[in-house]
Specification:
The complex is a heterodimer of chains A (273) and B (275). Chain A is an all-alpha fold and 273 residues long. Chain A has eleven helices and no strands. Chain B folds into two domains: 3-48; 76-274, MetI-like fold. Helices cover 75% and strands 1% of the residues of chain B. Chain B has a two-stranded antiparallel sheet with strand order 1-2. The chains are: A mainly alpha (273), B mainly alpha (275). At the A-B interface, helix 2, helix 3, helix 4, helix 6 and helix 7 of A face helix 1, helix 3, helix 4, helix 5 and helix 6 of B.
């Protein structure tokens, strides 16, 4: 404890200094130099074509100025079609995903599911969560052809992983006493789930569903890039044609809807809980 | 819980317990009717826009896809290490850049540390617009502006990270304990000193946790940025898909899966150490 006494003496003399985050100076310097070496190595791997950047700078300015005068009208039919596809895709995929996620989530909760079912459901969750929506979309587009159906199935699959994981964690955290009380009345397994487990997880499940609706809309704007329909396809086309004013209009619409959805979902979550 | 009387003479023996009033039951029923019809309507829109001929042979297509994906082209993995290194760099450098930009934004956006309400709404605007646009869309924009390559990927990841880190950090700053701030202010400390001695130590663990969490998400996202030309392993993925080399696609999937699992493990370990 001599060091802390030293520090107290220094403090009395008005020379106190903050404790470093890592006490041992050797570790500290090793860590700092490792970080610097990594940053240099990583920085060297960036190849920048400065001529291309300079050429693109004017386009960047054009794009920024397009944000101040977005063009909603010229391609309004395309935008409308993409938006409609995105919104319908979002809603159907969320509903289907949640319906499928409930059995998977129940199966992935260690306190109610037997081990084989638990492992099976957990592996479904792991696969669905590891891969980005867009990678899954590539596979489903190859299987189901271009269009919103592939997008809907993609989003539903991603929703299953997300909702089932959170639902399973929620079920694992429930108050066991209520389960015991219901079981003591001689209730069957289904009755136990309905009267002891379901009321405890329901508010959070509803909140998460709206949160996922919000996420699914954002993702639906992206999976169009690989041909799964939605507003992402419209945006991709607009950018490929260098129509920055239309692209800006699409982006503004996306931002507007996401903001609205976020506000609404946080309001509903507050109201439910 | 309301008790409903079957007749007006209010004889308790005839009282019947119901969970909900009739009005509530009707409202719930109407809500379900509305929801189910909306779902069916949406389903119809999707179904109208789908070529069902292509869907009918989906099982064969799926089986065909799997048979072509297996066995993976293991030898191709040797050509992927550079791309994987690029992917990790995109995620890490992007996160570092994002942190640097998100940090001041969060302090400007937090209600208790912002110097001025106008600056606060400006910072919130930055955070919101960064959050609502996916990193893949950011990458698409940047690729058209500054050309394909790792730089576009790094910037895309950084721009997307500002919103995420900024939002979580400013919420953490708003929840700090006011007493240390008061104590440091009482010593006559300047504004910056209050920040550095009273606010920063309180949000540091949350900040470290958030950054590592975002790094983990960024690793996932950087694996697909190449699909729009922003560098990393996604470029190889795009090339393999376009040339229908599904055995190469599957080896890339395996590598992505392994990378994501490892990064998730690291992130979980580090976060546990901090919190």
């Amino acid at each position: 404890m001599s060091t802390s006494n030293d520090r107290l003496n220094l403090a009395a003399q008005g020379q106190w200094r903050r404790l470093p985050l890592i006490q041992d100076w050797r570790y500290r310097w090793a860590l700092i130099s490792a970080v610097i070496i990594y940053l240099i190595l990583a920085g060297l791997s960036i190849e920048v074509n400065w001529a291309r950047v300079a050429e693109g700078a004017s386009r960047g300015l054009e794009f920024i100025s397009a944000f101040f005068q977005p063009d909603f009208t010229t391609r309004w039919r395309d935008i409308q079609q993409g938006l409609l596809e995105s919104l319908t895709m979002t809603l159907t995929s969320t509903v289907i995903g949640i319906i499928l996620a409930i059995p998977v989530g129940v199966g992935a909760a260690r306190n109610i599911a037997p081990l084989p079912i638990y492992l099976f459901c957990r592996s479904i969750i792991a696969i669905s969560r590891t891969f980005q929506e867009i990678i899954i979309a590539i596979l489903f587009v190859a299987m189901f052809g271009f269009g919103p159906l592939a997008g809907m199935i993609t989003l539903a699959f991603a929703t299953v992983g997300f909702m089932a994981k959170l639902l399973a964690e929620d079920i694992e955290d429930i108050d066991e006493r209520q389960v015991e009380a219901i079981r003591a009345t001689g209730a069957s397994w289904l009755q136990m789930m309905n009267y002891a487990v379901q009321p405890q997880v329901m508010p959070r499940l509803i909140g998460l569903s709206f949160y996922r609706l919000d996420i699914n809309f954002r993702e639906s704007a992206v999976i169009g890039i690989v041909g799964a329909g939605g507003i992402g396809a419209t945006l991709n086309t607009a950018l490929a044609r260098y129509e920055y004013d239309t692209a800006a209009a699409v982006l503004l619409i996306i931002i507007g809807i996401v903001l609205m959805a976020e506000y609404l979902s946080s309001y509903i979550r507050k109201w439910v809980q | 819980m309301p008790l409903r009387f079957l007749s007006d003479d209010k004889d308790l023996s005839q009282a019947q317990w119901k969970l909900r009033t009739t009005r509530e039951q009707w409202l719930i029923w109407l809500g379900w009717l509305f929801g189910v019809s909306l779902f069916l309507l949406c389903w119809k829109v999707i179904s109208d826009n789908t070529m069902w001929v292509f869907v009918q042979d989906a099982p064969q297509q799926g089986a065909d896809l799997i048979s072509r994906m297996w066995p993976p082209d293991w030898a191709y993995a040797n050509l992927l290490w550079k791309a994987l290194w690029d992917t990790i760099n995109i995620a890490t450098l992007g996160t570092v850049l994002g942190i640097m930009m998100a940090f001041p934004c969060a302090f400007l956006a937090a209600r208790n540390t912002t110097p001025h309400p106008i600056l606060r709404s400006f910072a919130l605007l930055i955070i919101v617009s960064s959050r609502s646009i996916n990193s893949l869309i950011w990458a698409m924009l940047l690729v058209t502006i500054i050309g394909p390559g790792i730089l576009a990927g790094i910037l895309a990841i950084a721009l997307r990270s500002i919103g995420f880190i900024g939002k979580l950090l400013y919420e953490a700053i708003e929840e700090i304990h006011p007493t240390p701030v008061e104590a440091i202010t009482a010593t006559g400390a300047s504004r910056m000193q209050v920040m550095s001695y009273a606010v920063l130590p309180q949000v540091m663990p949350a900040f470290a946790g958030i950054s590592i969490y975002r790094w983990d998400i960024n690793i996932r996202e950087s694996t697909v940025l190449g699909l729009v030309g922003a560098g990393g392993i996604g470029l190889q993925l795009n090339a393999a898909i376009n040339s229908l080399a599904w055995d190469r696609v599957s080896i890339i999937f395996i590598l992505i899966f392994a990378t994501v699992v490892v990064s998730e493990y690291i992130s979980a370990k580090v976060r546990k150490a901090f919190i």
